[in-house]
Amino acid sequence: MTDLPALADILETARVVALPMHTRFRGVDVREALLFEGPQGWAEFSPFAEYDDAEAATWLAAGLADAWRPRPSPRRERIPVNATVPAIAAAHVPEVLERFDGCRTAKVKVAESGQTLADDVDRVRAVRSCMGAEGRIRIDANGGWNVDEAERAVHALAPFDLEYAEQPCASVDELAELRTRIAYLDIPIAADESVRKATDPLAVARAGAADLLVVKAQPLGGIERALAIVAEAGLPVVVSSALDTAVGLSLGAALAAALPDLDYDCGLGTAALFADDVAEARPIAGTVSPARVTPDPAALTRLAAPADRRTWWIDRLVRCHALLAEGAAQGAAERRG
Q1: Which of 104, 111, 151, 139 is nearest to 265 (CA)?
Q2: Measured in whole angstroms, how far is the alpha carbon of residue 26 from the centre of its chain?
Q3: Cα angle at 192 between 33 and 52, to 5 degrees?
Q4: Which domains does the chain have, with CATH numbers?
Q5: Could you tell me which residues come within 8 angstroms of residue 253 by beta carbon, excluding any fewer than 6 positions away?
Q6: How far is CA 116 from its chain centroid?
Q7: Rounded to the nearest 5°, which phi and psi values hold at 182?
Q8: In the chain, helix, strand, coil percent, each to 5?
Q9: Could you tell me if 283 and 103 are in contact, meaning their C-beta atoms sit under 8 angstroms apart?
Q10: Can you give the pTM of this predicted structure?
Q11: More exposed terminus of the chain, fewer Cβ within 10 Å: N or C?
């Protein structure tokens, strides 16, 4: 942000929450987040705990922009979303899908550490059984396979009529090679980590390593930057969440609502993975609203994180704010020079 909000103004309303999950997801049983209120409304700062301050500061920039700047005008009133199936045993798939009201698409986690390709096949088979022939299934490996493993896995899962494979390999070069190898299967490749965790989020598009991009508002620094990346990449996109609270999900939904084109169901239904949240954000008839969310005061109290975790998050906020201030000062000096 050009005009960085004062740290004191952020701290004045800062609340740290801990949301319990129905099922362990991405190694997380309880999702922590720091929420704060600005002139435009409530916003979220929730980089995962293992991220360093430099990466986390981009998430803070997104939250500050959302709380202090108006959002773009929406082009659509509802956002279609997918169900998300964690790396669970196949027998538990029906109970997970039941939480996603009316979703016609499911994203299935695969390549989980400690599991096998047979586990993935069983899980995807169970999802196809639940959703029927007309349901859409996409898989997400979070970069967990090398090229050979990914080729074998996609071939094994192809009979279940995959919509696309998300981040099957970690690097852009691997994605490009895999895309060439599996071209005969006509299964698109989507890039997620190669966009949101990359120094150059457009490298994957320039390399021809993906057919579509997965974009997330917080990791990319906010709606404005995400829209610029999408426009320059020139590829179809899916807007997804980073396991956000209801507040952060509304930011993602606002990004999806602002896009000129939205060809795929978005990964913004993850509120259904939480046993409790700061506001209601679960899908209704397979869609979510892009409207701003105001946390329920009772929920903020009920879900307040323990004192030591609040301290941890406040300290992190202070450090990341300092990094943003340093970057703003450097940018100003360069403009003067």
Answers
A1: 104
A2: 12
A3: 45
A4: 7-71+298-336 (3.30.390.10), 79-296 (3.20.20.120)
A5: 79, 239, 266, 268, 288, 289, 290, 291
A6: 25
A7: -105, 15
A8: 40, 20, 40
A9: yes
A10: 0.95
A11: C
Residue 43 has pLDDT above 90, yes or no: yes
Spatial contact of 250 and 291, defined as CB atoms under 8 Å apart: yes
Known catalytic residue: 107? no
Name the token pair of 84: 């998300």
According to the model, what pLDDT value does residue 334 have? 75
CB 67 within 8 A of CB 41: yes
* Pairing of the two strands 162-166 and 237-239: unpaired
Catalytic pick from 109, 128, 196, 321?
Answer: 109
Say which range, 97-101, 139-143, 198-202, 320-324, has the weakest mean pLDDT.
Answer: 198-202
Helix orientation angle between 147-157 and 172-181, rounded to the nearest 10 degrees:
40
With a cut of 90, say whether residue 58 has pLDDT above it.
Answer: yes
Give 178-216 pLDDT, tens digit per residue. 999 999 999 999 999 999 888 899 999 999 999 999 999
CB 46 within 8 A of CB 33: yes
Residues 218, 44 contacting (CB under 8 angstroms): yes
Radius of gyration, CA atoms only, the chain: 20
74: which 2 tokens? 């929406």
Per-residue pLDDT for 24 more than 90? no
**Tens of pLDDT along 63-108?**
999 999 999 999 999 999 999 999 999 999 999 999 999 999 999 9
Give the pair of three-digit tokens for residue 119.
């586990």
Q: Check 15, 179, 216, 316 and give the catalytic one.
A: 216
CA dist., res. 228 & res. 173, Å (int): 24
Q: In the β-sheet with 237-239, what is the strand arrangement from edge to edge?
A: 83-85, 105-109, 136-140, 162-166, 189-191, 212-215, 237-239
Q: Hey, what are 320's tokens?
A: 């990341």
Nearest residue to 252 (alpha-carbon basis) of 260, 261, 264, 242: 242
Residue 132 zone, left/alpha/beta (φ > 0; ψ -120 to 50; rest): left
DSSP-derived pairing of the beta strands 79-80 and 237-239: unpaired
